[in-house]
Amino acid sequence: MGLVDLLDPFISALLLAGIYAAMSVGMTVIYGVMKIVNLSHASFMMLGAYFAYELFERFHIDPVLGAAAALPVFFLFGMAVYWVLVRWIPKSNQPTLPSLLLMFGLSLVLQNIAYLIWKNEDRSITTSYTLSAYHFGPFDVSKVRVIVFAAAVVSVIVLQVALRKSWFGRGMRSLVQNPYASQIVGVDDRKTSMLTFGLGTAFAGFAGALLALLFSFSPDFGRPFLLRSFVIIVLGGLESFSGVALGALVLALVESYSIFIPNMEASYQPAISYLLLVVVLLLLPKGIAGLLERKWRSG
Amino acid sequence: MKAALPRLSAKTALPLLLLLALLLLPSAGLSPNLVRILFITYVWTITSVAWNLVGGFTGQVSFGFAVFYGLGAYTAGLMINAGGSPYLGFIEAAAIAALASFFVGLPSFRLRGPYFAIATIGLTEAIRVIMSNLKITGGASGLSIIEHRQFRQVEHYYTALVAVALAVLVSMLIAGSRFGLALRAIKQDEDAAASLGVNPYQSKLWVHAIAAALTGVAGALHARYAVFIDPSGGPGGVFAFQTGISILLMPVIGGIGTVWGPVLGGVVFGIVEEELVVNFPNVHLLLYGILLILIILLEPGGLAGLLQKAFRLMRRPVGHSES
Questions:
Q1: A98 at B interface, C-beta within 8 A
Q2: How far apart are CA B70 and CA A44, in angstroms?
Q3: Out of A95, A108, A268, whose CB is closest to B285?
Q4: How far apart (Å, rounded) are the C-alpha atoms in residues A30 and A229?
Q5: Chain A stretch 193-232, residues whose beta carbon is closer than 8 A to a beta carbon of chain B
Q6: Among candidates B109, B244, B69, B116, which has minimal Cα distance to A277?
Q7: Which of A25, A189, A197, A255 has the fewest C-beta atoms under 10 angstroms from its C-beta?
Q8: pLDDT tens digits for range A143-168
Q9: What residue ranges do the domains of chain B occupy?
Q10: How much is the ipTM here?
Q11: Which of B109, B121, B123 is the best residue to mutate to test the A interface, defined by the most A CB atoms within 10 Å of its own CB?
């Protein structure tokens, strides 16, 4: 096995990690502020994919622009979902079963509305650059993957900076750290929660639109990615941005390098990330970041 | 054992009357289609009652019951194909499913609440992927079950009726026992329960195994009747995520944590499912989603809770002094 064979999965893992991070960020902010495990994240991603698809098919808008357009649309949609459904759920400082089942019910509704509209068939977006590639020496890198990577990384970085600098972002982060103290100093819990839910949904729609460039999709599109998002945010310690980036990279690396496991058929590959989820939940309840922190404190 | 003899109150008499009526029903000359719908309703009700033991009594929401359903179906299918008695196959299905419950439960019950629920999603999906690729399950193309006996619908009906009666009996016995109290204590506050001498981890494992065994029998009943099973991810596949969803929806709709709520949920689901699936393939899950949202937001007691409220409202004008 040559060096090229070993490095090729690394490049594809890196490119994959970008979009993985973008799709998990939305889940992290919602979990951080509201302690809701958003099971309808998958449906938001699926709707994002169809959003980009419809814009592309009807108005010939480039899917990357479509993804950008998904941000404000899904932001409003998420706020509406919060206002209609989520705000009635009793608040808690840990995830509750009613919230889990409510988001699950919403995902059933959205998914089956999608079945009614788009039917149960696989669709894909084929642009002029879908099949072209960049050549770096011995490596062929798919152009569309690079574009998706760039869009995802830029958006996550912009979000990170915006949350560091803005009042809303500070309020949000203070709610993550200590809900009681932040309410005492005047952070509006309801308003921040609503905006956060909008933000999380916006990023789910955005990531779904980008994923539609890479994979074919149907109304059942989001579930494998939902599970991956779980793995990532659990790996990342549930509440931090840098954790999400790290988790995304780890998962992408594991997936890409799993092709080297001998005697394993490719069809078993999805099982790896699902099993990784369980292993991570059990062994690293605070994620990699938590593990490093513990090491650092004790050492 | 002086308290064990049940008083013949409405609480025990009504279920017995119901059972008697259902036992006599086939001799009333029902159409084969109606018997089929009843059969399917019984199978679903078994899974609903089983799920409620873990999700309702103990408060551990699992998305992973399709694993036990599927394992039960395949165990019975393979046993029948090997020439064994189907009834032996049912017992083996229960045993295999219970065994698998430890495989799922030993790691995932280390986690609490929603983390347990998420872990069950991961495990179910992993097992489904593996099962869809194994040679013994017939891979994605499925398994045909050939039984060298004459097909008698009434036999299937009575087997399912006995199984569902057994499931309800188990549920009633657990609800009234010390074990049931321990489970409810775990649901309310795990740490407090542990401090009072309940071992939450072990109790969860045991109730999970019982529920898995019942679900395995349900899968086996389905397999023997359906004659063909496949593990696929689409609706109808025994290992499908959808199957796990259905098993979770029934008790939640009916009313979790009670003995009769899940039965009600299973019956409503079985009948509605059979009518809706035929006519509107995707509308049924849409309806269940809406129902789930409404139940969580408005009436966490489910249909059973709703009925109770309705009864109370009806009684109010008559007896003012009742408290």
A1: yes
A2: 29
A3: A108
A4: 13
A5: 220, 223-224, 227, 230
A6: B116
A7: A189
A8: 888 888 888 889 888 888 888 888 88
A9: 31-240
A10: 0.82
A11: B121
